[in-house]
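Researcher: Quick one. two chains, 471 residues in total.
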Amino acid sequence: MTHQGMPRTVMPGDTITREARRAGDNVVLVGDTLVSSAVGLVSVSDDTVSVIPLSGKYMPRADDLVVGMVISHTSQAWELDINAPYVGFLLATDVFGRDFASHADELTSKLALGDLVAARVANFDRTRDPLITIDDRDLGKIDSGELVKIAPGKVSSLIGRQGSMIQAIETATDAAITIGQNGWVVVSCDSADGLLRAKRAVSAIEQGAHSQGLMDRVKSALARGGD
Amino acid sequence: MGGRDTDMVLLDANGIRCDGRRIDEPRRIMIKAGVLHNANGSAYIEFGDNKIVAGVFGPRDVHPKHQSNAETGILRVRYHMQPYSVTERKRPAPSRREIEISKVIKEALLPAVMLERFPRTAVDVFVEILQADGGSRCAALDAAAVALADAGIPMRDMVSACAAGKVADTIVLDINNEEDQAGQADMPVAIMPNSGKVTLLQLDGVLTRDEYRRCIETGIAGCKIVYDIQKRALAERHFSGAGQ
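Model:
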C-alpha cells in the first residue's frame, strides 16, 4: 500500500486494492475492488483501507472540536459556519444558561456576526443539522487571533505525532494555536513577528501535508523572520 | 453540424485535417486545477481554441429550500458563454442551447458524483466559456469533473469527454469548429474511464451502423487521452511535493 515509505496517492476512480479489506473513509467497494472516491493518500490500519482527502469540506462527527464562525442567529440559537455542508446550531441556553429568556436576552450581546467560537459537535446525523455546544472547558468565544483555513484532511499533519508539530510551532513562535477538526485554525500571538511566522508554518503544512521533509520545511518557515 | 458548404479542404489526400492534425489526433489540451481562490474547487481548460473555466461550490445549503432532497444532495450545473466567447456578441441571457448543455453536463456528471452522502445539500457547478471553438460541451465537462474532484466532492470515478465525428466521409477524433460546421456528423462522448460506463452520448448527423460503432470507439479513445491529462492536472495541484 506504500511506495518506498511514502503514502500512495490516488484520485477518484483509482483502484486501491483487490485484497479482501474493509472499505474505510473515501473508499468504495466496486465488485471485488476497493476504489478511491477522493483525491488523497491511501492509509491502511488493521484491515481497513481509507483515503485521507487533500481537499473537501468537513463532515461533522459527534465530539469533534471545531472552530466556528457566527453567520446568523434566530431567537433561540446562533448559526455557525463550521466549514461543513451543514450549518451548526449553537443553542442560546448553552451561553446564557438555563434561565435564558428569548424576549429579554439579546443574542448579539454575547456573540455577534463574524465572531469565532471554539466548540464541540454535540450530535449530528443525516436528518438534522449539527448541534454545537460550548459547554466544556476551554470552549467558547475566541477573543483574539487570526483565522487560517486548511483542508480538514490535513489537520492530523498540523498536529503531528503526539502533537509534535503543533508544539514545535508554538514553542518557536510563542503563539497559541487553536485547531478545529474542521480545518479552521486560530493563531494568536502577542508579537506580530511570531504571528506571521506561525501563520507561515501553518500554510507550509497546508501546502505540503503528508509529504516527506515536512518538518524541515516548517522549521525553515519558522526560522525566517517576518519580512 | 452546421451542414454548411465550405471551400476549405477538411481532409487532404494524406489524411491530414484542415488544422494539420491526423484523423486520430486530438487538439492541444491543457488543464489546470485550483485556479480560483474563492470557489471550493475549480479548473481551467484549453481544448484547442476553447478556453473554459469551471468553479464548484458545495456541498452547501440548498436555496430555494423546496429544491432540497432529504434523501440525497442535488447537483446544479450552469453552462454559460461569455458575450465575447464567439465572433458575434452573444446575448448573455441563457439560450436554449446553453440550457440544454447545462442539462446534459449535469446528467453526465450525476452517475459519478456521490451525492447520497450529503442529503439536503446542493453542489453547484458553474462553467464559463471564455472562448468557444467546436466541442465546448466536452471541454466544459472535462473541466467540471476536475473542478469537482478538486473541491473534494466524493466521486465513484472521473468523467472524461471527447467528441468524434465524420468529416469528408472519414471518422475523425475531436472535431473542431470548421469540421463541426461543414462536417457530416458530430458525436460527443463522455465516459467514466475506470468503469468504462458511458455517461454522455449525443449524435448530430447521419452515420451507418459501422460508422456509428467506429465513432464511439474513436470518442472513447479520445476520452482516455483526456483522462490522463485530467489526472496530471489534479496531481500537479495536490501532490506536488507529496506522495509518490
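The two ends of chain A are 42 Å apart (CA to CA).
Researcher: Thanks, that's what I needed.
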